[in-house]
Each structure stands twice: as structure tokens, then as C-alpha cells.
Write a structure and sequence with these properties.
The chain is mainly alpha-helical. Helix content is about 60%, strand content about 5%.
Amino acid sequence: MELNNVAIGDSHTTDPEKLNEPNSRKTPQGAEPPPKTERSKPQLLYAINENPVWYLSIFLAFQHYLTMIGAIVSIPFILTPALCMSDEDPNRGIIISTMIFITGIVTYFQATWGVRLPIVQGGTISFLVPTLAILALPQWKCPAQADLDAMSETEREELWQIRMRELSGAIAVSAMVQVVLGYTGLVGRILKYVTPLTIVPTVSLVGLTLFEHAADTASKHWGIAVGTTGMLTLFSQIMCDVTIPVIAYRKGHGLEVRQFQLFRLFPVLLTIIIMWGLCGILTATNVFPPSHPSRTDVRLNVLTSAKWFYVPYPFQFGLPSVTLSGVLGMLAGVLACTVESLSYYPTVSQMSGAQPPPLHAINRGIGTEGLGTVLAGLWGAGNGTNTFGENVGAIGVTKIGSRRVIQWAAVIMVLQGVIGKFGAIFILIPDSVVGGIFCVMFGMIIAFGLSTLQYVDLRSARNLYILGLSIFFPMVLCPWMQQNPGAINTGNETVDSTLTVLLGTTILVGGFLGCFLDNIIPGTPAERGLIEWANEMPLGDDNVNDGTATDFDFPYGMNAIRSWKWTYYVPFMPTYKLKKQN
């Protein structure tokens, strides 16, 4: 979800020809929705099962990689200070490399054996909210700066690694819930109770909770931060339709000059490069005094100390620890990511020219995403995995929906993840530049959550009451709980820590309030938005497997699977609930 609408406009529009037309996916009131067989196909250069030549695939894959990297590198700028890591710690580069490495592995598995759509699975801001709530507990708060300065290098390393082990255990164990929900098919049943008024506070509070971190980072130099935000606005919103001529290959026509939508595809990357370069000029001319956080050389030793090659491996920071408070707190991020990914699957299927995703593919996609988050926890990435909204929209813009391109992109991510110097480079991005990106990114996360209100009746006093209370109350309670971690004293330390984390996690409190109130306060299905929401996410018996959605079959072994009758009862198999044609 990070910067999905910033990077490519309206990435949720299901028709890529109408990316700039708001509300283009809504069916007019009173009109019958078109049958599945008559769904219009987008004009694609390469559809989901079409494979460009290998060298063109690599180029297009690198384009997806660049689309993803601008968002994923921002996560450690919030995570590592909460882990008590110093700005100059070269291990920050290892964490970024680990995130990229895991993104590549999970993306390849998801595109090949999971939901089998051309999607990228990467780190997500949604996990930062419970992460910060967990690290706000008394036992995980960072010592005073004087105490940190007095520590040896070994002690300082153990200080952040023990926190990483706590997060790793919480992420890996909580993600098992997502694995079970997906592979057992329970996700459809549970999401019947996850209504639009549950999703709005859950997603919106991700951005609202992190505003202080955006302010702290941007305040390192407000001029650079505001300039970054302004330039990103210029590229992504004002110049999004400006094209530049490039030489491109077209199947059946060879090389030709085409117009490339540079600013629509890479506004984040272009903004970072330009503002980073400006900071470099101001550093070289000593406009920024020594040790100023906006200087480009303030963390240069991170790059020089980083290894050229480093292969991330499981338990690289030690064996993960598991606590009840950490697991339950991180579960909020898992559930938020589940709902978010579900909203992308129908969009990507149409953008890539595939059939609507059948229930078995949806189950498999959610289960695979959970499995990827388990791997991220075991590898010590400090984050989970989720469908990247930026890459979803990039398919609509480039009209390249090939699954093979995403598989090549995954290979590139794995290779880049083992080049230690590459991960360390991104640590050199000045804080003020990242702060400007945060201002836009967190704002768009809020807007993404609020966009779900399109399904509900906002003239209803009932809905307004639920909406207002479920957003405002967590912003009052949760910060107070984090600032007063000793407020709950039951006499049992485990219970105290668990309740403190749960009540200090805004997306959990807000989501629970929205879900609870929406399901107990009387309201009609139309008023609650359940009718239109069901049309967007057909997870029940209406999603019939008639055997025609072959785009989601496994790449190998389908003849054998069809001959085994027991596979017709396994929720993640392509033959699940298969209705044979007469």
C-alpha cells in the first residue's frame, strides 16, 4: 500500500485505460454488472501468460524493482532508531539487504505457486505500528544517550539484536495465523465480519499513528523536507501525464521510438535522486555544517564498513524469542495486510488480462503471503510482507502484465539482496529527504483507508458515529498507554505486558471498535456498504470454480492433481470445489 496512489495515480482502478478517471470502477446504480465472460480485456503489450524475450524481460523487471525500492528503503529509518541502533551502524545496511532478499524470494514463490498473479510482495508500513507499540514497553525502551555512549561495540550490538529477536519471534508466530487463514480457506468466513467500517480505521490509523516520526525526520531540515514533498507532488500529480521519447522494443515491430511515462512510473525514485543530489551539493559547498543530519557524508562510514557480499540467512541475529504480548500485538499488522492484499487481487487480475481469481487462488495467495512473513521473521528483516501497491499500478501504466517479468524482478531482488554495499547506499539518504517522503506516504495511507468509505452511506448518523469513535478513541488511548506502560498492574507481568501492547496498538483498537460496533449496532446491509463490498470481494459460495480459470493452475502437475479426488477438498488446490462441465 505504501505510496500506491502517489507513485502511479489511482492504482485501484481496474481498467488501466481509465487510470486518471475517478470512480471508473463503480457500476451505475440500478445497472446490472456484466457477466464474467463479457469482462472487457485491457489492451496489453504482454498478458499474464505471455513471455517477452529474456533481455526485454530483464529490463521490464528492473523497472518493477525500481518502483518497489523507493518505498522499502524508508522502513528502516523508523525501525532502526526504535531498535536503539546508531545512525552509523553498518548493520542498518544488512537489514535493508535482508528485506530486499526476502522480497525476492517471496515474490517469486507468490507469482509461481501462490496466487500466480504478477504482484510484488515486500515490506510494509502496517507492521511498524505494532512494532513501535511493542518496543514502547519498559523492558525494550532505549537507555539514555549517555549510557549508550558508554557501551562497548559488543554491548551495543547485543542491545539492538535482542530487540530484533523479540520482533522476529512476534512476526513469525503471528504470521502463522495468516498461513492458517489462507491455506484452510477460513479467510473467506472471517472476512464476512470485516466490513468497510472495520477497514477504514484499521488502515487509516497506520498513517495517523506515524505522523510524529514523519515530523521528527522532516524537522532535521524543513527546507529540504518541504522541497522533497513539493517535488514529489510535482512529478506524481502535475507532471504525471508528461512523457519523454525513448527507444523501445515492440513485439512484431522491432525497435521504435515511444513515449515513456517517466514521471508517472518513478516519481519517488526521481525525487530521492534529485533531492539527494541537492544535499550533496550543499554538503560539498559546506552550506550544511559538519555533522548536520542532512549532509550526505554524515553516515559515510556505513558504506565503507559494509561487506561487498553478504548472504542473509535464518537466525542471523540469534534465535527469535516469543512472548504473548508481542505475538498478539503483531497480529494487528497481519490482519491489516490480509485485507489489503485481498483488495488488490481482483484489480491485478484484470490489469494483467487474467480471469477473475477463483477462491483457491485467493486462499493460496493469502497463505503464501503469511508464509513469506514467517520467513521474514526468521531471517530477521524486522518486518513482514504485503502486496506492493506501486507495482500493481505500474502494470496498468506500462500495460505489461506478464508473470515472467515479475519472476525476473524477483531474481534481481535476490541478487541485489546479497550485495552488501548496495543496501548500505540507501542508509546515506539524508533524513530530511526521507521525512519529506514520509509526509506524502503516510498521508496516502490515510487516504487509502478513507477511500473504503465509498461503499457506506455517509448520510447515516450510525455510520458517522462508528467512524468517528473508532478513529479518534485509539488516538487518545494508545499514545497514553505507551507513555504510561505501568498503568496496568494485575500482578502478572505477562498479562500486564500483553494488555499494554494491545491497548497501545492503534490499528488493533480502532479495527476492533469498528468491527464490534458495526456488527452490533442495527443497520441495513446497504447502509453498512455490505452489498457493494461483497461485489468487490466475492469470497463466499458465489465464487464458483468452474475450471475455466486456468491462469491460476499450477505450472506443473495439473493432470495428476485433477486425477486425485482428494484435491477437490483442499482449499488451496486448483481443483478445490471444482464443478465439472456437462
